[in-house]
Protein backbone atom coordinates (compact mmCIF):
# COMPACT_ATOMS: atom_id res chain seq x y z
CA UNK A 1 0.00 0.00 0.00
CA UNK A 2 1.04 3.57 -0.70
CA UNK A 3 -1.01 6.33 0.85
CA UNK A 4 -1.26 10.10 0.50
CA UNK A 5 -3.62 12.68 1.95
CA UNK A 6 -5.21 15.88 0.74
CA UNK A 7 -7.55 17.99 2.86
CA UNK A 8 -9.24 21.02 1.32
CA UNK A 9 -11.93 23.48 2.19
CA UNK A 10 -14.80 23.66 -0.27
CA UNK A 11 -17.11 26.53 -1.07
CA UNK A 12 -20.00 26.58 -3.49
CA UNK A 13 -19.50 30.34 -3.80
CA UNK A 14 -16.29 29.86 -5.81
CA UNK A 15 -17.19 31.44 -9.15
CA UNK A 16 -20.45 32.86 -7.76
CA UNK A 17 -19.22 35.49 -5.27
CA UNK A 18 -15.50 35.80 -5.73
CA UNK A 19 -12.86 37.67 -3.71
CA UNK A 20 -10.17 39.90 -5.29
CA UNK A 21 -8.45 38.52 -8.44
CA UNK A 22 -5.14 38.04 -6.54
CA UNK A 23 -6.89 35.74 -4.07
CA UNK A 24 -8.58 33.76 -6.83
CA UNK A 25 -5.20 33.40 -8.53
CA UNK A 26 -3.57 32.11 -5.32
CA UNK A 27 -6.28 29.52 -4.81
CA UNK A 28 -6.26 28.51 -8.48
CA UNK A 29 -2.50 27.99 -8.21
CA UNK A 30 -2.70 25.87 -5.06
CA UNK A 31 -5.52 23.80 -6.57
CA UNK A 32 -3.54 23.30 -9.78
CA UNK A 33 -0.55 22.08 -7.76
CA UNK A 34 -2.78 19.78 -5.70
CA UNK A 35 -4.29 18.33 -8.83
CA UNK A 36 -0.85 17.81 -10.36
CA UNK A 37 0.21 15.96 -7.18
CA UNK A 38 -2.79 13.66 -7.51
CA UNK A 39 -2.13 13.09 -11.21
CA UNK A 40 1.50 12.18 -10.43
CA UNK A 41 0.48 9.86 -7.57
CA UNK A 42 -2.03 8.18 -9.90
CA UNK A 43 -4.23 6.75 -7.13
CA UNK A 44 -5.92 3.38 -7.65
CA UNK A 45 -8.50 4.34 -5.04
CA UNK A 46 -9.72 7.56 -3.44
CA UNK A 47 -11.38 7.39 -0.03
CA UNK A 48 -13.16 10.70 0.44
CA UNK A 49 -14.55 11.83 3.79
CA UNK A 50 -17.15 14.51 3.07
CA UNK A 51 -20.09 16.28 4.70
CA UNK A 52 -23.59 16.64 3.29
CA UNK A 53 -25.66 19.84 3.37
CA UNK A 54 -29.25 18.52 3.34
CA UNK A 55 -28.99 17.24 -0.19
CA UNK A 56 -28.52 13.51 0.31
CA UNK A 57 -29.18 13.09 4.03
CA UNK A 58 -32.21 14.34 5.97
CA UNK A 59 -33.66 13.95 9.44
CA UNK A 60 -36.10 11.25 8.29
CA UNK A 61 -33.06 9.02 8.84
CA UNK A 62 -29.87 10.86 9.74
CA UNK A 63 -26.80 8.62 10.16
CA UNK A 64 -23.69 9.80 12.07
CA UNK A 65 -21.72 8.40 9.13
CA UNK A 66 -22.54 6.49 5.99
CA UNK A 67 -20.50 4.65 3.38
CA UNK A 68 -21.77 4.51 -0.19
CA UNK A 69 -21.45 1.67 -2.69
CA UNK A 70 -23.05 3.90 -5.34
CA UNK A 71 -23.39 7.67 -5.41
CA UNK A 72 -24.80 10.37 -7.63
CA UNK A 73 -24.02 14.08 -7.51
CA UNK A 74 -27.08 16.33 -7.20
CA UNK A 75 -25.16 19.01 -9.11
CA UNK A 76 -25.89 21.86 -6.70
CA UNK A 77 -24.36 25.30 -7.29
CA UNK A 78 -21.78 24.97 -10.09
CA UNK A 79 -20.82 21.35 -9.47
CA UNK A 80 -20.94 18.50 -11.97
CA UNK A 81 -24.07 16.33 -11.82
CA UNK A 82 -24.16 12.58 -12.34
CA UNK A 83 -22.74 9.34 -11.03
CA UNK A 84 -19.42 8.93 -9.23
CA UNK A 85 -17.25 5.93 -10.11
CA UNK A 86 -17.70 4.22 -6.76
CA UNK A 87 -15.64 1.09 -6.09
CA UNK A 88 -18.70 -0.93 -5.12
CA UNK A 89 -17.17 -4.21 -3.94
CA UNK A 90 -14.33 -2.50 -2.10
CA UNK A 91 -16.82 -0.18 -0.38
CA UNK A 92 -18.74 -3.23 0.82
CA UNK A 93 -15.51 -4.83 2.05
CA UNK A 94 -14.72 -1.62 3.90
CA UNK A 95 -18.19 -1.48 5.45
CA UNK A 96 -17.76 -5.05 6.73
CA UNK A 97 -14.25 -4.28 8.00
CA UNK A 98 -15.49 -1.21 9.91
CA UNK A 99 -18.43 -3.06 11.49
CA UNK A 100 -16.20 -6.01 12.42
CA UNK A 101 -14.00 -3.61 14.39
CA UNK A 102 -16.84 -2.25 16.52
CA UNK A 103 -17.54 1.01 14.72
CA UNK A 104 -21.12 1.33 13.49
CA UNK A 105 -21.64 2.86 10.06
CA UNK A 106 -24.71 3.17 7.86
CA UNK A 107 -24.62 1.78 4.34
CA UNK A 108 -26.14 3.27 1.22
CA UNK A 109 -26.46 1.49 -2.09
CA UNK A 110 -27.68 4.72 -3.71
CA UNK A 111 -26.53 7.95 -2.09
CA UNK A 112 -27.01 11.46 -3.35
CA UNK A 113 -23.98 13.64 -2.66
CA UNK A 114 -23.55 17.41 -2.99
CA UNK A 115 -20.81 20.02 -3.45
CA UNK A 116 -19.43 18.92 -0.07
CA UNK A 117 -18.15 15.79 -1.80
CA UNK A 118 -18.04 16.60 -5.48
CA UNK A 119 -16.38 20.02 -5.57
CA UNK A 120 -13.16 18.69 -4.06
CA UNK A 121 -13.27 15.52 -6.15
CA UNK A 122 -13.55 17.63 -9.29
CA UNK A 123 -10.85 20.07 -8.16
CA UNK A 124 -8.42 17.24 -7.39
CA UNK A 125 -9.16 14.96 -10.34
CA UNK A 126 -10.98 16.99 -12.99
CA UNK A 127 -14.13 14.86 -12.91
CA UNK A 128 -16.32 12.60 -10.78
CA UNK A 129 -15.18 9.44 -12.53
CA UNK A 130 -11.41 9.73 -13.07
CA UNK A 131 -10.51 7.23 -10.31
CA UNK A 132 -12.40 4.61 -8.29
CA UNK A 133 -13.74 6.32 -5.16
CA UNK A 134 -15.35 5.37 -1.85
CA UNK A 135 -17.42 8.19 -0.34
CA UNK A 136 -17.82 8.25 3.43
CA UNK A 137 -20.18 10.99 4.55
CA UNK A 138 -19.71 12.31 8.08
CA UNK A 139 -22.64 14.22 9.57
CA UNK A 140 -21.30 17.74 10.13
CA UNK A 141 -24.46 19.81 9.57
CA UNK A 142 -27.34 18.12 11.36
CA UNK A 143 -27.01 18.01 15.17
CA UNK A 144 -26.69 16.05 17.35
CA UNK A 145 -23.23 14.91 16.26
CA UNK A 146 -21.12 11.98 17.37
CA UNK A 147 -18.15 13.28 19.41
CA UNK A 148 -14.85 14.06 17.71
CA UNK A 149 -13.16 11.02 19.26
CA UNK A 150 -15.65 8.86 17.37
CA UNK A 151 -14.58 10.46 14.11
CA UNK A 152 -10.95 9.79 14.97
CA UNK A 153 -11.84 6.14 15.65
CA UNK A 154 -13.70 5.87 12.35
CA UNK A 155 -10.67 7.28 10.53
CA UNK A 156 -8.32 4.85 12.29
CA UNK A 157 -10.37 1.84 11.26
CA UNK A 158 -10.52 3.05 7.66
CA UNK A 159 -6.74 3.50 7.76
CA UNK A 160 -6.27 -0.06 8.98
CA UNK A 161 -8.39 -1.27 6.05
CA UNK A 162 -6.35 0.77 3.59
CA UNK A 163 -3.18 -0.82 5.02
CA UNK A 164 -4.48 -4.24 3.90
CA UNK A 165 -4.78 -3.13 0.25
CA UNK A 166 -2.10 -3.57 -2.36
CA UNK A 167 -2.95 -0.20 -3.92
CA UNK A 168 -2.03 3.47 -4.15
CA UNK A 169 -4.71 5.16 -2.05
CA UNK A 170 -5.49 8.86 -1.78
CA UNK A 171 -7.36 9.85 1.37
CA UNK A 172 -9.31 13.09 1.08
CA UNK A 173 -11.07 15.30 3.62
CA UNK A 174 -13.24 18.16 2.42
CA UNK A 175 -14.83 21.11 4.22
CA UNK A 176 -14.15 23.69 6.89
CA UNK A 177 -12.29 25.40 8.25
CA UNK A 178 -14.16 28.01 10.35
CA UNK A 179 -17.35 29.22 8.66
CA UNK A 180 -21.08 29.56 9.10
CA UNK A 181 -23.18 29.78 5.94
CA UNK A 182 -26.95 30.16 6.39
CA UNK A 183 -27.74 26.44 6.78
CA UNK A 184 -30.97 26.12 8.81
CA UNK A 185 -31.29 24.31 12.15
CA UNK A 186 -34.23 22.00 12.91
CA UNK A 187 -34.42 23.38 16.44
CA UNK A 188 -36.78 26.36 16.23
CA UNK A 189 -37.39 26.00 12.48
CA UNK A 190 -40.68 26.99 10.84
CA UNK A 191 -42.93 24.14 9.66
CA UNK A 192 -41.80 24.60 6.07
CA UNK A 193 -38.09 24.58 6.89
CA UNK A 194 -38.57 21.71 9.33
CA UNK A 195 -40.30 19.73 6.58
CA UNK A 196 -37.38 20.46 4.24
CA UNK A 197 -34.80 19.36 6.81
CA UNK A 198 -36.71 16.12 7.48
CA UNK A 199 -37.49 15.10 3.92
CA UNK A 200 -36.39 17.74 1.41
CA UNK A 201 -34.80 15.39 -1.12
CA UNK A 202 -34.91 16.32 -4.82
CA UNK A 203 -35.98 19.97 -4.54
CA UNK A 204 -37.44 21.75 -7.57
CA UNK A 205 -35.00 23.73 -9.73
CA UNK A 206 -36.71 26.88 -8.38
CA UNK A 207 -36.07 25.84 -4.77
CA UNK A 208 -32.46 25.05 -5.59
CA UNK A 209 -32.00 28.42 -7.29
CA UNK A 210 -33.55 30.23 -4.30
CA UNK A 211 -31.15 28.43 -1.96
CA UNK A 212 -28.21 29.45 -4.13
CA UNK A 213 -29.37 33.09 -4.15
CA UNK A 214 -29.68 33.04 -0.33
CA UNK A 215 -26.14 31.73 -0.01
CA UNK A 216 -24.77 34.35 -2.42
CA UNK A 217 -26.61 37.11 -0.53
CA UNK A 218 -25.11 35.81 2.73
CA UNK A 219 -21.64 35.82 1.13
CA UNK A 220 -21.98 39.46 0.14
CA UNK A 221 -22.33 40.60 3.76
CA UNK A 222 -20.44 37.84 5.57
CA UNK A 223 -17.96 39.14 8.14
CA UNK A 224 -19.68 42.56 8.32
CA UNK A 225 -21.96 43.94 11.00
CA UNK A 226 -24.92 43.21 8.69
CA UNK A 227 -24.38 39.46 8.91
CA UNK A 228 -26.09 37.41 11.62
CA UNK A 229 -23.73 34.47 11.01
CA UNK A 230 -20.73 33.64 13.22
CA UNK A 231 -17.68 35.13 11.45
CA UNK A 232 -14.53 33.33 10.34
CA UNK A 233 -11.99 32.62 13.08
CA UNK A 234 -8.48 32.54 11.63
CA UNK A 235 -6.98 31.92 15.05
CA UNK A 236 -9.06 28.78 15.51
CA UNK A 237 -8.16 27.64 12.00
CA UNK A 238 -4.42 28.16 12.52
CA UNK A 239 -4.50 26.24 15.81
CA UNK A 240 -6.36 23.37 14.14
CA UNK A 241 -3.86 23.26 11.27
CA UNK A 242 -0.99 23.27 13.79
CA UNK A 243 -2.56 20.37 15.66
CA UNK A 244 -2.60 18.35 12.44
CA UNK A 245 0.93 19.45 11.47
CA UNK A 246 2.18 18.27 14.87
CA UNK A 247 0.33 14.94 14.70
CA UNK A 248 -1.55 15.71 17.93
CA UNK A 249 -4.70 13.95 16.74
CA UNK A 250 -5.78 12.77 20.20
CA UNK A 251 -6.31 16.43 21.08
CA UNK A 252 -9.61 16.27 19.17
CA UNK A 253 -10.96 14.01 21.92
CA UNK A 254 -11.27 17.18 24.03
CA UNK A 255 -13.07 19.19 21.32
CA UNK A 256 -16.40 20.58 22.48
CA UNK A 257 -18.97 20.66 19.71
CA UNK A 258 -20.86 23.53 21.34
CA UNK A 259 -17.73 25.63 21.87
CA UNK A 260 -16.51 25.18 18.31
CA UNK A 261 -19.93 26.18 16.97
CA UNK A 262 -19.84 29.36 19.06
CA UNK A 263 -16.22 30.32 18.44
CA UNK A 264 -15.76 29.40 14.81
CA UNK A 265 -19.23 28.79 13.35
CA UNK A 266 -21.54 25.80 13.07
CA UNK A 267 -20.16 24.56 9.76
CA UNK A 268 -16.63 24.43 11.20
CA UNK A 269 -17.59 20.87 12.11
CA UNK A 270 -16.83 19.92 8.52
CA UNK A 271 -13.25 19.63 9.84
CA UNK A 272 -14.47 16.28 11.10
CA UNK A 273 -13.63 15.06 7.60
CA UNK A 274 -10.03 16.26 8.07
CA UNK A 275 -9.84 14.51 11.44
CA UNK A 276 -10.99 11.23 9.86
CA UNK A 277 -8.58 11.59 6.93
CA UNK A 278 -5.54 12.32 9.13
CA UNK A 279 -6.49 9.53 11.54
CA UNK A 280 -6.72 7.14 8.59
CA UNK A 281 -3.27 8.15 7.36
CA UNK A 282 -1.77 7.88 10.86
CA UNK A 283 -3.28 4.43 11.41
CA UNK A 284 -2.34 3.10 7.97
CA UNK A 285 1.38 3.57 8.41
CA UNK A 286 2.34 5.00 11.79
CA UNK A 287 3.57 8.60 11.71
CA UNK A 288 3.03 11.12 8.94
CA UNK A 289 4.64 14.23 7.52
CA UNK A 290 2.12 17.03 6.86
CA UNK A 291 2.35 20.29 4.96
CA UNK A 292 0.21 23.39 5.07
CA UNK A 293 -0.24 24.28 1.41
CA UNK A 294 -2.47 27.30 1.93
CA UNK A 295 -4.58 29.21 4.39
CA UNK A 296 -6.58 32.38 4.08
CA UNK A 297 -9.88 33.50 5.62
CA UNK A 298 -12.08 34.41 2.63
CA UNK A 299 -15.32 36.15 3.58
CA UNK A 300 -16.70 36.28 0.03
CA UNK A 301 -16.61 32.49 -0.04
CA UNK A 302 -17.78 32.07 3.58
CA UNK A 303 -14.68 29.99 4.17
CA UNK A 304 -11.66 29.78 6.39
CA UNK A 305 -9.99 28.36 3.31
CA UNK A 306 -7.22 25.85 3.87
CA UNK A 307 -5.36 23.15 1.97
CA UNK A 308 -3.10 20.50 3.52
CA UNK A 309 -1.16 17.52 2.18
CA UNK A 310 0.40 14.64 4.06
CA UNK A 311 2.13 11.32 3.51
CA UNK A 312 3.82 8.68 5.65
CA UNK A 313 7.07 9.72 7.27
O1 LIG B 1 -25.85 24.41 2.25
C1 LIG B 1 -25.66 25.30 1.41
O2 LIG B 1 -26.37 25.36 0.41
C2 LIG B 1 -24.52 26.28 1.59
C3 LIG B 1 -23.25 25.58 1.81
C4 LIG B 1 -21.99 26.42 1.91
C5 LIG B 1 -21.95 27.81 1.79
C6 LIG B 1 -20.77 28.51 1.92
C7 LIG B 1 -19.59 27.85 2.20
C8 LIG B 1 -19.61 26.47 2.32
O3 LIG B 1 -18.47 25.76 2.60
C9 LIG B 1 -20.80 25.76 2.17
O4 LIG B 1 -20.78 24.40 2.24
FE1 LIG C 1 -19.72 22.80 3.33
TrEMBL record:
Tell me what reaction this enzyme catalyses: 3-(2,3-dihydroxyphenyl)propanoate + O2 = (2Z,4E)-2-hydroxy-6-oxonona-2,4-dienedioate + H(+); (2E)-3-(2,3-dihydroxyphenyl)prop-2-enoate + O2 = (2Z,4E,7E)-2-hydroxy-6-oxonona-2,4,7-trienedioate + H(+)
Q: Which cofactors does it use?
A: Fe(2+)
Gene that specifies this protein: mhpB
Q: What GO biological process term is on the record, naming one?
A: 3-phenylpropionate catabolic process
The text of the family note is: Belongs to the LigB/MhpB extradiol dioxygenase family.
Q: What is the designated name of this protein?
A: 2,3-dihydroxyphenylpropionate/2,3-dihydroxicinnamic acid 1,2-dioxygenase
Superkingdom assignment: Bacteria
Q: How does it assemble?
A: Homotetramer.
Job of this protein: Catalyzes the non-heme iron(II)-dependent oxidative cleavage of 2,3-dihydroxyphenylpropionic acid and 2,3-dihydroxicinnamic acid into 2-hydroxy-6-ketononadienedioate and 2-hydroxy-6-ketononatrienedioate, respectively.
- Which GO-annotated molecular functions does the record name? 3-carboxyethylcatechol 2,3-dioxygenase activity; ferrous iron binding
Q: Which Gene3D superfamilies match?
A: LigB-like
Catalytic residues of the enzyme: 115, 179
Q: Which residues form the Extradiol ring-cleavage dioxygenase class III enzyme subunit B domain?
A: 7-304
Q: Which CDD domains match?
A: MhpB_like (cd07365)
Q: Which EC numbers does the record give?
A: 1.13.11.16
Its taxonomic path starts at: Bacteria, Pseudomonadati, Pseudomonadota, Alphaproteobacteria, Hyphomicrobiales
From the UniProt record, give the pathway where this protein acts. Aromatic compound metabolism; 3-phenylpropanoate degradation
Which InterPro entries does this UniProt record tie to the protein?
DHPP/DHXA_dioxygenase, Xdiol_dOase_suB
Q: Which Pfam families does the entry link to?
A: LigB
- What keywords are annotated for this sequence in UniProt? Aromatic hydrocarbons catabolism, Dioxygenase, Iron, Oxidoreductase
Amino acid sequence: MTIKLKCLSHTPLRGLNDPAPEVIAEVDAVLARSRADVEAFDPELIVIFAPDHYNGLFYDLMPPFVIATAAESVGDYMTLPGPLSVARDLALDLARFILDRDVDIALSHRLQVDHGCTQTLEELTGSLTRYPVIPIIINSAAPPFAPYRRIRQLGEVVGRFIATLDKRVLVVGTGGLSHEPPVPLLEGASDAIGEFLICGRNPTPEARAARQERTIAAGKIYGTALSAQTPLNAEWDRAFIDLLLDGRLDAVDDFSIEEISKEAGRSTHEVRTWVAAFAALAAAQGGYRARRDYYRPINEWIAGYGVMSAEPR
